[in-house]
Amino acid sequence: MAKTNPGRFFEDYKIGDVIAHAVPRTVGEGERALYHALYPARHALYSSDEFARDSGLPESPLDDLAAFHVVFGKTVPDVSLNAVANLGYAEGKWLKPVFAGDTLRSTSEVIGLKENSNGKSGVVYVRTRGWNQLDEVVLDYVRWVMVRKNDLGAPAPETVIPDLKKVIPAGELVIPEGLDFSNYDFVQAGEPHRWGDYEVGEIIDHVDGVTIEEAEHMIATRLWQNTAKVHFDATFRPDGQRLIYGGHVISMARALSFNGLANAQMIVGLNGGAHANPCFSGLTVKAWSEVLDKAETTAPGVGAIRLRLVAVKAGAEPGQLKGEDGKYLPDVLLDLDYWALMPM
Amino acid sequence: MAKTNPGRFFEDYKIGDVIAHAVPRTVGEGERALYHALYPARHALYSSDEFARDSGLPESPLDDLAAFHVVFGKTVPDVSLNAVANLGYAEGKWLKPVFAGDTLRSTSEVIGLKENSNGKSGVVYVRTRGWNQLDEVVLDYVRWVMVRKNDLGAPAPETVIPDLKKVIPAGELVIPEGLDFSNYDFVQAGEPHRWGDYEVGEIIDHVDGVTIEEAEHMIATRLWQNTAKVHFDATFRPDGQRLIYGGHVISMARALSFNGLANAQMIVGLNGGAHANPCFSGLTVKAWSEVLDKAETTAPGVGAIRLRLVAVKAGAEPGQLKGEDGKYLPDVLLDLDYWALMPM
Amino acid sequence: MAKTNPGRFFEDYKIGDVIAHAVPRTVGEGERALYHALYPARHALYSSDEFARDSGLPESPLDDLAAFHVVFGKTVPDVSLNAVANLGYAEGKWLKPVFAGDTLRSTSEVIGLKENSNGKSGVVYVRTRGWNQLDEVVLDYVRWVMVRKNDLGAPAPETVIPDLKKVIPAGELVIPEGLDFSNYDFVQAGEPHRWGDYEVGEIIDHVDGVTIEEAEHMIATRLWQNTAKVHFDATFRPDGQRLIYGGHVISMARALSFNGLANAQMIVGLNGGAHANPCFSGLTVKAWSEVLDKAETTAPGVGAIRLRLVAVKAGAEPGQLKGEDGKYLPDVLLDLDYWALMPM
After folding, report:
1. Among B143, B164, B185, where does a domain finish?
2. Is C205 in the same domain as C342?
């Protein structure tokens, strides 16, 4: 009996299946420091326990995207080992902050299947949940990937395409228990701009750039126990390049967005996202954001802001996303749509 | 008086000498996170405090190889600064798990000496012990190295070659106090294969590969306070290459072996090991294992499995170790013989 | 309204202004481990909690230079974003050790201004203070930088040049509360040389070298939340090189100085420093020290030693600092003058 994991193929997924992903992970101060070492992360609520306490939390949580990466990483051996492409995200909600000492595990429920007309692959939709050691869901999101068939003769399953919200309504966002921005310290946070200072349609060029190194993206991706060969093995692709984990680009762009969005403190919703073009080492990543929407919340002093976060190669024009053909421009790496919380 | 450490030469070692190595080291959550960032480590007992507790331990210990590297690193300034070659390991036993907050120090006892017939160097055998802050031995192993003479006129010492076991008998392995695999969660651990599923002689190709980066091996080797110039200084070797610490290859191969040996959780014995060929950055490391032996233990649900772990360059054929001349094939980097604990 | 930080220009500084720098930072075990991973740091007091306790401290503090880097990093967006050059340091005092769990923030008071005769830039002197969560000053130093003017028509301010001590008198050094070296363990510390063994004028070649990697200096510089573009963005300089943060060279040289100065445990004073030549990845850094002065202290068994720490490119002659023209030799990277504490 072969002992190694061949991954799942399209025909191995059934609607309603719940996959318990392996290798729970305890996170702590080490992950926190590494996140700050790998990304230019400066949002004060994650940098300072004191700032977090002044905001009504017991201490700084693990960065929301680090929590996402840990939960996501566990799904790779079961969901994306034979994936051809990562097609999209939807309905991502952060439900509980993750604190040092928490142990995370993940499950994925198969909620959609559609075989491609070529009969060689299909699209699998899963709802992934991240759980802590108290069996509370800390994160919940839908992702769909194109997966190869192994047995081309396997019959096509009944097509099921889940009905996914294009945008999470602001009223469904979960505000972390106790969060209170009424005594928010804008000086310590780094910028004076509050929720009311941002206008829908506004474009913010985050100015700074970071050149990507092989060692850094591998250290990050390994830290999340993401095992996809293409990120680590230079002999895997014919061109000898290691494809950079899309989540590395997400975290880099989000950290760069501090410059202009220092007060967009916590990420609570992921409406959608596309890895528009692949990223390789040597590229310099920059970022710009667009304000897509704003909403009030019931938490004291806390507003919600919906942002488009775009990662681009250095040299790209901020605000330029797609060409006349409706396709992403070649310099665009990432187009992410998320909800963050900001002082009002 | 020169203030810097010239290292010891062959004539400086006397049978029975015990060298107290410098710079004790407290390990913690940072080392744990870095180990997971530098190696694709996924064994559940080290990844999750909850899994460790369900296995009868108070929390996840520091990875057994990280403990080895810390203990080994301290010996470098006293044992291998003038070493020509690291010749072998034997009788390595992990006696106590190392937990966050523990402070490690090392001692080495000279147990063997043999001058080479050329009169220019000799082989030194040391038994190294790693101690925690309670003066308990956590790790104990024998290592022998070829060391240069400084004073070629120094008389050859009486030859003493220690009587070393080729393999640690299973009955002498020390099982961590409280370890209990009777309620082992194979789903969380990542693979269904238990002790009974492995057969002596079985070869497992671990499939995955990692391309080695200068920054990563230096970060790892520095973390263990290993000071050998050859790993860090590109001007040291005539070819301008930095030789990669053999322990980096050991940890890389062991982490890769998760895929097929996810349940070989704890390392308790090191029977022997050879760094068959040097490793440099840019190489892609893969690994395969051979089951060498199996034994029962007295701990509930815990079996012992003796494994050969082989690190190779990408492209090598799994299972191929030596040529017709009895020498290691050029693609073989590491041949390690160890005992691990596995659920029965 | 532009949301991103343009940085301050020369005309924006007024004598007496106190700038509260943004983004407080909680430090912990992760930063400690990363410091040991990024630099060959081996001073026992920072490596072992047990050694620190035997020296009268509650546990190992964060490395003094790590504390410096965190405090310094916060000043970059407000002080050096438009700086042309970092000109000097003076009167640096470490006033309180920083322990895991402490949260640091920084303030800078403008204490000197001098417009250059070209009318295009000027020199700004600031006294920067690092504070912990108890509002205690942990570090205090003066730094001066040359900053561009934005509005060339802005009138020149009155010239104020602060009266700075060339050397902090030994009697003004602050010894950490409780520090006691009377039972100092020289074997564990790594070298037998005590305060009395060093002579003023003595030169120590630290022998070891480290080749600089892009990933490593970026990880380090990011960890201190230093945002200067020139360290991270390969498209920023016309030559495509990333300039290495001067503090990376300081920490590298200081760690290398262990070999010969293992007992120069704690840094308590920074008399001055110059980044003599820029450092780029691929260079191999070595270091040498000169004993500049010695003084007794009131703490039991604790002496103070004033050292010149020089970082050089591999191949440079130890002890050679400046040419006949009085300028730093091209192989010199750093010339640092500091006070450390050593067992008597």
Report:
1. B164
2. yes
Q: How far is A44 from chain C (nearest CA, A)?
A: 5
Find the mean pLDDT for residues B166-186. Answer: 98
- CA A21, CA A127: separation in Å to the nearest integer? 13
CB atoms within 10 A of CB C93: 17
Residue A2: its pLDDT value, please?
Answer: 82
Residues of chain A with pLDDT under 70: 1
Best CA proximity match to C18, nearest among C115, C92, C91, C126: C126
Do A213 and A146 lie in one domain? The reply is: no
Nearest Cα residue in chain A from B59 = A26
User: How many A×C Cβ pairs under 8 Å?
Assistant: 133
Distance from the first to the final alpha carbon of chain B:
60
Residues C225 and C271 in one domain: yes
Q: Mean of the pLDDT values across residues C128-140?
A: 98
- In sequence order, what DSSP letters do the residues of B273-318 get, joined into one string? EE--S---TTPEEEEEEEEEEEEE-SSTTEEEEEEEEEEEETTPPT
- Whether residue C126 is contained in a domain is answered as yes
Supply the DSSP symbol for B80: I
Range of the domain at A256: 167-173+190-344
How many Å separate Cα C176 from the centre of its chain?
A: 18
Q: Is residue C134 part of a domain?
A: yes
Helix, strand, coil % over all residues of chain A, rounded to 5: 25, 30, 45
Number of domains in chain C: 2
Structural domain contains residue C33 = no
Of B38, B219, B260, the CB nearest to A4: B260
- Residue A80 CA to residue A77 CA, distance in Å, equals 6
Structure tokens at B34: 């870095």
Give residue B1's pLDDT: 53
Is C44 within 8 Å of C191 (Cβ atoms)?
A: no
Residue of B54, B216, B291 to mutate when probing chain A, most A C-beta within 10 A: B216
Q: What residues contact B293, with CB distance under 8 A and at least 6 apart?
A: B167, B170, B200, B305, B306
Inter-chain contact A26–B34, Cβ cutoff 8 Å? no
Q: Which residues contact A238 (CB under 8 A, 6 or more apart)?
A: none
The answer to whether the CB of C230 falls within 8 A of the CB of C243 is: yes
Residue B141 and residue B176 in one domain: no
Rounded CA-CA distance A148/A171 in Å is 38
Q: How many helices (H) and strands (E) does chain B have?
A: 8, 12
pLDDT at residue C318 tops 90: yes
Q: What does the pLDDT look like over B126-160, one tens digit per residue? A: 999 999 999 999 999 999 999 999 999 999 999 99
Averaged pLDDT, B12-18: 97
Q: Identify the domain boundary among C108, C141, C164.
A: C164
Q: Rounded to whole angstroms, what are the CA distances from C344 to A253, B5, C180, C195, C297?
A: 52, 20, 11, 5, 10
- Which segments of chain C are extended strands (E)? 18-20, 25-26, 83-94, 103-115, 121-131, 137-148, 203-205, 210-211, 266-274, 284-296, 302-313, 332-343
Question: From its phi and psi, is residue A314 left (phi > 0), alpha (psi between -120 and 50) or beta?
Answer: beta
Give the residue on C whose Cα is nearest the Cα of A61. Answer: C26
Are C159 and C189 found together in one domain?
no
Domain CATH for C242: 3.10.129.10
